[in-house]
Amino acid sequence: MAVCELISDAGLDAVTVARTARSAGMSVGLVQHYFRTKDEMLLHAFTYVSARIRDRVDELIRTGIRHRKPISGLLAEAMAQLVPMDETRRTEFRVTRAFAGRSLDAPALADVDVRTARKLRDDIAQAIHNGKECGEVAPELDPWLAATRLAAITEGLAMQVYRDPGGVNGVPAADMSDSIIKNELATVFTGECHQYGRRVAGSA
Amino acid sequence: MAVCELISDAGLDAVTVARTARSAGMSVGLVQHYFRTKDEMLLHAFTYVSARIRDRVDELIRTGIRHRKPISGLLAEAMAQLVPMDETRRTEFRVTRAFAGRSLDAPALADVDVRTARKLRDDIAQAIHNGKECGEVAPELDPWLAATRLAAITEGLAMQVYRDPGGVNGVPAADMSDSIIKNELATVFTGECHQYGRRVAGSA
DNA sequence: GTTTATACCGTATGCTGGTATGGTTATCAA
DNA sequence: TTGATAACCATACCAGCATACGGTATAAAC
């Protein structure tokens, strides 16, 4: 979508139907033909990027399962996908963040926001649940608490990395991010996997 | 500030000089008298709320020190201040988030954003450093890594709690938040404090 | 008592942007 | 051939908004 590029390098406020049309190489009328209103267009763009990111993560997990990787490793990769460590993810981050800001007073956008966030958290919880069944996670651990914590770390880390891509004290942000995610996962996935073939996340 | 109220319950886009003026009980002309431009006004509002939150945290820490509380407890309280658990904090959260969204393409706002975030993280690092000197923290622990993690958890938790104030699975968000913060701090502050009288954070 | 500065107001102006409208072309079914 | 639906365009219209401007009032300063 052309809207996303626009948002990413000019900001959501810079998005006008006219500009969007030009950037997409079409006329204003055509944009109107597809979206009855501007809000509709923005909503579409938001759901679109959200879905795209999710698809990438899901794909990552699916192939991971196929290769019989441990769940903790899969989660690490998945979480890293949401941290803006390269240009692609940085662009995505900018877009989602812009929408997140507007979500505060646009119910339709807010809905997409909570839905995606919720799905991420629930999938993590599911992964933890599966981890229990295969021995990677201690049985007495609360999956929802841990999932919330992991979701929070991911989202928070994303912001830290975005603000200081160079990292702190000479250590690159990407390295810090990786090690933090790893450590955080290590407090949840404390055992070895001894059973395979389960689904990790509820990727419907 | 009247701007903040407006932002909180109508969104940043709903902020016009005219509306702001009316909401503050004055004329458009007077607003112009104080702020040459609208952006100037918004910038002022952003720095204002940021400073207010910080002041509250600083005050909390200062009295905590006076009462000789352990550093980990102070940090827990401080971090909780940034999580929208009551109406006040929820309002603040909405305002700061709205600005954070616009920060993506407004250098002046972005500056305030990174400055406040950076300050929080550095203060946490300082607290950890102090924790080492008084025995609460293991000497080999990397302060910057831990500080980044704690800052990330705080910010991420804030979003989780904002989206699901009711919590997950029957557990109130506030309770989850508290326990997550506590656990997270427990991995850093592993010892007992045996020495008093140090500053916790660099509250200048 | 006149100047200067500050607090304060109402309105005019110019522009930008969303949407409405009235069109053209093209495809395809009846 | 006709009719209908969809892809596609240019522009007109109108509202909302930031900013400019020209003003009044109060009061301290000289």
Question: What can you see in these coordinates?
Answer:
The structure is a homodimer of 204-residue chains. Chain A has 204 residues and is mainly α. Chain A has a domain at 45-186: Orthogonal Bundle (Tetracycline Repressor, domain 2). Helices cover 70% and strands 0% of the residues of chain A. Chain A contains 9 helices and no strands. Chain A has helices at 2-10, 17-24, 28-34, 38-66, 71-80, 87-103, 107-134, 143-163, 173-186. In chain A, helix 1 crosses helix 6 (87-103), helix 2 crosses helix 3 and helix 8 (143-163) runs antiparallel to helix 9. The first copy, chain A, is elongated. Residues 196-204 of chain A have low confidence and may be disordered. The interface between A and B is large, with 44 and 43 residues.
List its salient traits.
homodimer; 204 residues; mainly alpha; Tetracycline Repressor, domain 2; elongated; disordered C terminus; DNA-binding
